[in-house]
Q: What sequence folds into this?
């Protein structure tokens, strides 16, 4: 048991991690679980039995195994997991026309190029939606720097879109987005206490916020690019297009890209991760580690820990990241 305690202390396994429904193996990310189950043609030799069972009864979108499910119910489950693409609105909606629904908003920006070689990203289009995918704000944005590359092949943005009357200033866009996010809360108060401020969902949020010259408290951000279960490795992110195809079941960012599609994809990923049923749930309210020992398994409890079962250790362990299921 001493080696098990040391392993739990180093690995920080918890009930919030993705887990194989067949052998109950813990994985640090869904990408690792996909490899373990052989989804996408990548099968680890030691997981061949899991891969065979998953191929017969598993869902390649949610990575769940439906034990005892018939062909009809399995097909219905797979169809329900695979979402469809939502077309962007035809007209710009520069003013929010509905009350935001839910506690989170999604932000998406499209960049054009500035600088001598057009490699400097500047925001030229912004979109904000709520949890029900209602557009609260959408506008073309006039960058502060001269645009040297419109990247029309992917953005669909032309010079006339950024002229006076057809677009808003960066300051105006920033003010609108902040109004929606803070929902009447004072900015200084939102930095330490959420109050009425809303969670901000997106992919590469720091990049988008920087382009809008904005800042937002880290504890209110829900970034699909840096959420550990959705990352490729501990330091490498997956693209939003990859995540949408593999965990929502449809393609985005084909042809002219619209920030609305990015917002919808990020929000759907967030809601799917938030809806994960993790077991055991006891660790959701586990006390924080003692100040003098930041490890979840302090050395002064070594003897007690060695007498615990693996499931007891799992209930005691806490993840080293904020699991989005705790937002529910």
A:
């Amino acid at each position: 048991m001493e080696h098990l305690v040391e392993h739990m202390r180093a690995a920080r396994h918890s009930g919030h991690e993705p887990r194989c429904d067949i052998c109950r193996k813990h994985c640090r990310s869904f990408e690792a679980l996909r490899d373990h189950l052989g989804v996408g043609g990548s099968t680890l030799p030691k997981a061949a039995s899991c891969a065979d069972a998953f191929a017969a009864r598993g869902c390649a979108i949610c990575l769940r195994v439906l034990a005892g499910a018939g062909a009809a119910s399995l097909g219905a489950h797979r169809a329900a997991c695979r979402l469809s693409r939502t077309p962007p609105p035809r007209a710009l909606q520069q003013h929010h026309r509905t009350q935001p629904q839910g506690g989170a908003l999604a932000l998406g920006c499209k960049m054009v190029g500035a600088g001598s070689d057009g490699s400097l990203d500047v925001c030229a289009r912004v979109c904000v939606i709520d949890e029900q995918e209602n557009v609260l704000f959408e506008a073309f944005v006039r960058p502060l720097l001269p645009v040297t590359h419109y990247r029309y092949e992917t953005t669909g943005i032309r010079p006339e879109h950024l002229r006076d009357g057809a677009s808003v200033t960066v300051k105006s866009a920033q003010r609108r987005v902040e109004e929606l996010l803070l929902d009447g809360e004072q900015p200084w108060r939102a930095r330490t206490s959420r109050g009425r401020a809303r969670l901000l969902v997106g992919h590469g949020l720091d990049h988008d916020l920087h382009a809008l010259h904005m800042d937002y408290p880290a504890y209110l951000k829900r970034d699909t690019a840096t959420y550990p279960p959705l990352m490729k490795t501990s330091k490498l992110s997956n693209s939003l297009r990859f995540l949408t195809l593999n965990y929502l079941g449809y393609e985005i960012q084909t042809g002219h890209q619209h920030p609305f599609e990015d917002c919808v994809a990020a929000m759907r990923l967030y809601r799917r991760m938030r809806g994960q049923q993790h077991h055991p749930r006891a660790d959701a309210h586990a006390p924080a580690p003692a100040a003098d020992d930041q490890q979840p398994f302090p050395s002064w409890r070594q003897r007690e820990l060695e007498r615990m079962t693996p499931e007891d250790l799992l209930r005691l362990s806490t993840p080293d990241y904020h699991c989005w299921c705790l937002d529910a």
User: Anything to note?
Assistant: Confidence is low (pLDDT under 50) at residues 280-293. The chain has twelve helices and seven strands. Residues 108 and 259 are 5 Å apart (CA to CA). The radius of gyration is 22 Å.
